Amino acid sequence: MNASTKPTPRAGVMEIAAYVPGKDHAGGVSRVFKLSSNETPVGPSPKAMDAFRMAAETLEIYPDGQARVLRAAIAEVHGLNPANILCGNGSGELLALLANIYVGPGDEAIITEHGFLLYRIQILAAGGTPVTVKEADRRVDVDAILAAVTERTKIVFLTNPGNPTGTYVPYAEIKRLHAALPAHVILVLDAAYAEYVRRNDYEAGIALVSANRNVVMTRTFAKVYGLAALRIGWIYGPAEIIDTLNRVRGPFNINTPALLAGAAAMHDQAHVAKAVEHNQVWLARVSEALTALGLEVTPSVTNFILIHFPDQDGKRASDADAFLTSCGFVLRAVSSYGFPNALRMTIGSEEANTGVITALTEFMERT
Question: In the structure, what pLDDT confidence band is assigned to residue 197 with cuts at 50, 70 and 90?
Fold first, then answer.
């Protein structure tokens, strides 16, 4: 008989540091610009909002457990077979399912130095061992990943583009990584920011998934589609993996308002283009303006930038964070991602972006 006097979690669970999202408030100011969670300043498609409102008429009815309308919309826009698509309560649910199904005690899963914190959490929750490999100059190092692969490796989690770095791995390197992985290892390409990338040598992963049995790609509606509040994600993968995930997921894991709004948003690619255009313009302007102040900005292909501050009293990231917050600009501290002297800034509205530039100009000019 178990002699414990209270319920005890499985070994390893208490090693997990709970995920902490970016702050969303600033005291003592009349207006706050939240630039800590990589939300789009353009907002959701008006068509998605109309679909959301229409869903209010049938709230007594269970949602479609197969997410047919949403999978069909995704498949049509991306040229995919809907049978190879699974939708989830944010891509986080799908990443968690992958870890819990394919990783167990004694297994390893590889993550990179500055990768999404959720990977480590879910690997530990599954009873597995996260193996963290170094990045090279804030970029994923394919050779470092391959050097960490052992017979116990079950998954390689790769954020591409990276968060919070904003850097990316060219498709040729992704193919080289996959070609060298054992056939039983799943390569997870987390492409949450793929819509923002404008580089000829980048691919989100669709072609690689289509041609192989051990690659999956996850995407989200929380970023460029402006539906973060609805928690919609999707995964494209081989039939065997999709079938396995379907056996374990919750039966009604996406609510009807999310299904209808997500489908409408997917079909409104003109709105997506508007959001991407705004981002392209202001990503360049903000990066150039902050660099001109003497701050280092990691070149980004996403809707955010990583700003590095001088290592001197009064000028460090913590000082800048406090000053910006006092001005009503909330950025993301990224110490937990391995950058104790940097802040991540979402590209926001014109007013928010120019406000941060003005505030940091004052901050850097202070003695």
Answer: very high
The amino acid occupying position 311 is: D
Residue (of 158, 114, 108) closest to 134 by Cα position: 114
Cβ–Cβ < 8 Å for 189, 217: yes
Residue with tokens 């003592």: 28
| Residue 31 phi, psi dihedral angles, 5° rounding | -140, 135
Distances (CA, A) of 358 to 86, 323, 329: 44, 12, 11
Nearest to 356 by CA among 276, 285, 300: 285
How far is the C-alpha of 30 from the C-alpha of 312, rounded, in Å?
Answer: 31
What residues form DSSP beta bridges with 108? 129, 153
Q: What is the DSSP letter of 221?
A: S
pTM: 0.93
Strand partners, 233: 88, 220
- Rounded CA gap, 48 and 18, in Å? 32
Number of Cβ atoms within 10 Å of the Cβ of 88: 24
Give every CB contact of residue 24 below 8 A, 6+ residues apart in sequence.
Answer: 32, 34, 36, 37, 330
Beta-carbon contacts of 72 under 8 Å, excluding residues fewer than 6 positions away, are: 82, 263
C-beta of residue 193 within 8 angstroms of C-beta of residue 204 = no
Q: How many CB atoms lie within 10 A of CB 22?
A: 17
User: Which of residues 14 and 90 earns the better pLDDT score?
Assistant: 90
Segment 48-93, tens digit of pLDDT: 999 999 999 999 999 999 999 999 999 999 999 999 999 999 999 9
Whether the Cβ atoms of residue 245 and residue 277 lie closer than 8 Å to each other: no
Whether the link from the prior residue into 161 is cis, omega within 30° of 0, is yes
CA separation for the pair 268, 260 (Å, rounded): 13
User: Is the CA virtual torsion 239, 240, 245, 248 positive or negative?
Assistant: positive
What would the pLDDT profile of 166-181 be if each residue is shown by its tens digit?
999 999 999 999 999 9
Strand, coil or helix: 186: strand
